[in-house]
Amino acid sequence: MNKNKRIVGLTAVALGLAGAALLTAPAAQSAPPDWNQCSDPTDLIGCLDEKVRTLSDIQPGLGTVMIEYGNRFTNMYYAAKAGNWGLAAYMLKEAKEIQEVGEMTRPANAGALIYFEQNFLTPVDDAIVAQDFRQFKVAFKQAEEGCNNCHASKGYPFIQFKLPNKPPAPLRMRVSE
Question: Whole-model pTM?
Answer without folding.
Answer: 0.69
